[in-house]
Specification:
Blueprint lengths: L1 H33 L2 H11 L19 H4 L2 H9 L1 H6 L3 H9 L13 H17 L8 H49 L4 H6 L2 H14 L1 H25 L16 H7 L4 H4 L14 H8 L7 H12 L19 H7 L4 H5 L16 H10 L11 H10 L14 H4 L2
The chain binds heme C (6 copies).
Protein name: Mono/diheme cytochrome c family protein
GO molecular function: electron transfer activity; heme binding; metal ion binding
Pfam family, one: Cytochrome_C7
Amino acid sequence: MFCNKTIMITMKRLKIVALMAVLGFFASVVSVKAQDPAEGEQIFKNNCTSCHAATDEVVIGPGLKGIGQRRPIDWLVKWVHNPQAVIASGDKYAVDLFNKYNKTQMSAFPSLSEGQIKSVVAYIDAQAAAAPAPAADGAAPAAGAAPAEGSSNGGMMQYIMVALLLIMVLVLIALLSIVSSLSKLASISPDAAEAQNVPLLKRLAENGKKLAANSAFKTGAALLITLLIGKATIDAAYGVGIHQGYAPEQPIQFSHKLHAGQYQINCNYCHTGVYKGKGANIPSANICMNCHNSIKRESPEIQKIYRSLEKDEPIQWVRVHNLPDLAYFNHSQHTNVGGLECSNCHGDIAKMEVVQQRSTLTMGWCIDCHRKTDVNTKGNAYYDKLVELHSKDHKEPLKVQNIGGLECSKCHY
Ligand code: HEC
Ligand code: HEC
Ligand code: HEC
Ligand code: HEC
Ligand code: HEC
Ligand code: HEC
């Protein structure tokens, strides 16, 4: 009896320890998720760099260096979700800032979650920490900046820690109540002598059954399993074959925002095949040299172009969009014949510092557009007969699906 009891108690302790470990694991996951500088970098680069730098530099809006210290996080979340609303509310800081920046309106980002905004702040803080202290300012401000950052991060961490502590205490209470009800069950077993005769394994199994029947335990277990399955499913869904959001680092820091955006160089100046052929083409170093044999020669990034030409080795650009071999896609069919804009499929590349895949590029994506999109028949004599035939028994205009855009063989070799 004594022996069994000790085992039972040890088991209970073990369970508590195991649960604590699982919770600890979640805690680490949650805290990383809450402010992930890598995620923040992505979000910042995709949404904010057109107007903000992570440094002191003013682009269109103010430099965001030190923003985590300058404004409380609640304010930042409200601001990013809807700057106009904050200004309209009469918030003095916002109104002053708005006037200082000549009443330039910042875009609203209602879809960014609080966690994502915190990640952006974490990224900006990390950038400031990584940047060397400016020599002119001397050592003092740099030394002052470090603890300030620490404290803001510390503040965040504290909230998370307190929340986790609360959860742990609740779980502990639940566990203790399970333990006490179990020991009650054990003590009212009809015959101690009989109980002693029952083999240890069987007793353990019975205790297991009782535990399983306990509703608090059931809900807890169900919650844990749901969380685990949910996380696995989300990870898997993002993992398999779909690369939406993929934005690899390139060997040269080539910026579309600068070239296609600020300097308005036509897409087909570089992507020479995009209106003529199947592939759009990635420009060779020679095309870069049309300009860079005189522009910014001294830049280390431009030096990389020279090196590639000297060695006669093409620049190893990392491919962003990539359909599997089984699918056939033709650019000129869509841009030239179909009259679509690049942004219909690629998003606004002229605003991207680093190219990012914006569409899923799945079969469903192609088909969906073919179902919805009218064929651009204007001024195309080739379609005149078809349109005439089509409008005889259809009210709707000719869609891509009506010209065979859903036929397997059109897209598969
Ligand atoms: C279209 C340009 C534009 C974009 C895009 C933009 N902002 Fe702004 N932002 C501004 C301007 C301009 C201001 C100055 C206030 C004003 O004029 O409304 C500002 C102010 C701010 C401020 C307050 C700065 C301070 O010094 O207190 C924060 C924080 C901020 N933006 C964050 C962001 C974040 C985060 C993103 C990306 C998710 C973003 N902004 C995208 C233009 C932009
Ligand atoms: C000055 C030359 C230049 C201009 C102009 C230019 N691009 Fe690019 N583009 C490049 C280079 C170089 C790459 C490969 C490196 C990279 O991905 O950033 C590229 C890559 C791309 C990619 C990704 C290719 C892949 O690997 O899947 C797309 C999409 C793209 N450009 C679209 C555009 C659009 C749309 C425009 C016009 C708004 C444009 N480009 C204008 C040079 C240019
Ligand atoms: C039609 C002219 C033109 C072409 C073609 C062109 N660029 Fe540029 N590029 C510019 C201009 C203008 C700048 C901005 C220079 C400045 O900031 O003073 C620039 C800046 C850059 C920079 C930033 C350099 C730095 O250190 O600030 C890089 C990197 C660059 N280009 C790479 C390329 C690559 C790679 C290609 C070929 C795929 C290319 N460019 C083709 C005009 C061009
Ligand atoms: C109907 C959708 C669609 C439109 C419109 C479109 N693209 Fe693409 N683009 C794609 C797809 C899909 C791929 C991937 C092709 C592959 O992997 O075979 C791609 C790939 C690219 C690439 C990588 C190199 C290549 O040829 O595979 C570049 C560069 C590019 N597009 C530029 C452009 C530019 C510039 C425009 C506008 C003039 C444009 N695209 C319009 C769907 C589109
Ligand atoms: C943004 C809308 C859009 C998307 C996305 C799109 N297409 Fe299209 N597609 C069109 C339009 C519009 C046409 C009609 C062009 C024309 O007038 O011939 C077309 C035509 C075609 C055709 C010729 C059909 C025929 O019978 O003549 C093929 C093949 C095709 N698309 C393949 C693809 C593939 C593969 C994808 C996905 C990787 C894709 N398309 C994605 C709009 C789209
Ligand atoms: C408008 C273009 C288009 C049409 C029409 C089309 N497909 Fe696809 N299909 C694609 C593209 C693009 C992919 C690759 C998608 C990916 O990698 O996720 C694909 C992938 C596939 C795959 C491979 C799926 C996988 O998981 O690798 C099969 C099988 C397939 N298609 C069958 C068909 C059949 C059967 C039809 C006719 C009923 C058809 N497709 C019609 C564009 C098309």
